[in-house]
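Task card 7
Instruction: Convert sequence to structure tokens.
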Amino acid sequence: MTPAEISTRALLDALAEGNGDAGPLTLGGVLDQFRARAFGIFLLLGVLPAFVPLPVGAGAVSGPLVMLAGLQMLVLMAHPWVPGFLSRRPLSRESMAKFRDRTSGLLRRLEKLSRPRAEGVIDHPASRLFTGLLLVLLGGLLALPIPATNYPFGLILLAFAIALIERDGRLMLVAWALGIAEIVVMGVFSGQVAGWIAGLLA
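Output:
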């Protein structure tokens, strides 16, 4: 299986186990190795903290990375750019394995339904702009310190990542719908909280 054809679960297996390669695993190296699916892989790695416990808020880590991917899609970049200190940063194979194990059931079900189709939804410039805009908004919301939102955002962003990796335009349409719904829900929730606070201060 070539890097251009690799499935999401096979990709995670390769990252977690190294396929016999004992060399260091870095973000830049992974994006270069799987260049044809680099935005999907960047997004997949970006949402990983939402599923792996961290000493700091996962959203504070994942949110900016998701926004960075979205901004680059908004300007129609062909390959994600990451700062040098992130590109050279070692990635933990143990964390990859934990993420794979925690999401294996969901990934198995999604892969049964996912395949390259409606690829214009993935590649068309207008589609890439819309995908980028949603990722910026979702990443910004994920970065906010709102309790119990890591998993909902993480699952929606995982759908975006798999759609990009598998080049599944239909799954991307589903991800769009879920992303818009989450943004609307958060907007309504934020409005209610703001109203409640204003009532207390009145």
